[in-house]
Amino acid sequence: MAGQRKTNPAGSTNQFRGDVLRVLGVLKVATADQIQRIGAPHLTFRHADKPTPSKQKQARTASHTGALSDMRKHGLSENGGATETGDTLRNLTLKGLEAASYELRRPVTEMGSTARGAGSSGGSHPMTVNETVIAMLRPKPNMAKLADDPADVQAAAQAAVDEPAGIGTIASFWTEVPLPATGTWNAPGKGGAQADIVLTAPQDQVPLLFIEADNCHETAEELADKLEKYARFFRRRMKDTDGKERPMWRTRWNAPETWSGDRTHPPVLLVFNRIGERNPNRTIPRLMDLTRHLWEGQRQKGDHHHHYDGRIPIIATGLNNLCKGGPDGPVFLRFGRDYMEPLRDAIGNPRREAADARAREAAVRAQEEYKEQVRRAAREQDARKAAEREARRPACADCGAKFTDDRWEQAKATDWGTATDSHPRLCDDCKQQAQAAAARQTPVGGDRQEQDQAVPEQKTGRWFSRRT
């Protein structure tokens, strides 16, 4: 124990140091509060008996603060300024990023920068990015770790568990990801964009989502220019490792060829945090007009849905609404629609899915109807053949009864063209009666008597008389 204290004077555990590496490896810069809310959300519900919110925060973040202190001693993390509310910002060093790559199981080349200096001006944009990630994650407390806590703490935590789930894990997110329109992944050229957040959570039906966080400082024209850079990146193609040419983004991320039946580019989510002077309620309509050629679909005749092949699904929401409703809340507006919906519906095309489902059902019904028509025609044909056969079925010349199938076959039997049946025009019963009557009319032994009478008498003694 003394050796552990000497190595980690703040007494941190591997678990809390792992939380720090995973969270800062993704977010690049964060506060101890944000690290705790993501890495150990069950601590959020403890220390409610502290007299002030600041004392509660200090108590629930103490473990991660100690981990950060120990990691700073080992050169893995460092302090990087403070937020406008006075919270210390933390980031990893290059050594820390390398350690985080093992925790996240990512290549070091995909870990990004250390974000040193990001908090020199308060870090308002990184904080918005982090809160967006937390709102998408909606971390759930581990109830097993609260088994010994008071009932009110457990009840509050259980209420959070029962709320709609978020999307993915912290390892599902990337931040500050370059999207090169020229150059390479590791050496991007000019003209490209940088995604604030990239989310990959196919297990939660969100295979790929690019997220832009905006503090309402940028104009609609500036945002439109950024989306044009996204489009340029999405259109860029390059040879993959198998020698086949693919969209560049597919060489790094996986996504289905179609989403809700559409062959779209990956969706882009705009998250507006109303810090700046610009009102998103006025920015979004103007942005829709400027980017219409990027997102507008083709309306299908006779059905109330669009096809979006080759388009970018662009969705907008507010950070406050996202924090309250989460990904499952109806707080997302897709450009081109006039209603709010959950995220998965917004990035998809539910109306096309419904239309395609109706078309499939109609095709199945048509196929079943066709099969039934074939079966009905076959039954009718069998019935006609059976009727024609019955019309040809012979009747007994004596009693008039129809032949059975076996009797009909016997009556038709031939041997080298000669009929083999003795009474081919009689049914079985009449044939047996005819044969019995014929047998009774023939006397027993009569043929032998006639034969005996036809043989002349032999004269005896002729040969003896010649000798005498």
Q: What does the radius of gyration come to?
A: 46 Å
**Order of strands across the main sheet:** 4-5-6-9-12-13-14
Distance between the termini: 159 Å
Provide the β-strand percentage band.
5-15%
Largest sheet geometry: 7 strands, mixed
User: Taking all residues together, what is the mean pLDDT?
Assistant: 89
Number of strands: 16
Helix content: 40-55%
Class of secondary structure makeup: alpha+beta
Number of domains: 4
Q: What form results from the Cα inertia axes?
A: elongated
Low-confidence stretches: 459-468
- Quickly count the helices: 18
Describe this structure in words.
The protein has 468 residues and is an alpha+beta fold. It folds into four domains: 1-122, Arc Repressor Mutant, subunit A (Orthogonal Bundle); 164-348, no CATH class; 350-392; 394-438, no CATH class. Helix content is 44%, strand content 14%. The protein has 18 helices and 16 strands. The chain has helices spanning 2-7, 14-27, 32-39, 53-60, 62-73, 94-104, 124-137, 151-162, 220-235, 280-290, 292-295, 319-325, 343-347, 350-392, 405-412, 428-441, 446-454, 462-467; strands at 29-30, 77-82, 88-92, 173-179, 193-201, 206-214, 237-239, 245-247, 268-272, 298-299, 306-307, 314-318, 332-334, 340-341, 414-415, 418-419. A seven-stranded mixed beta sheet has the order 4-5-6-9-12-13-14. A three-stranded antiparallel beta sheet has the order 1-3-2. Helix 2 packs across helix 5 (62-73), helix 2 (14-27) crosses helix 6 and helix 9 packs across helix 10. It starts with a helix and ends with a helix.
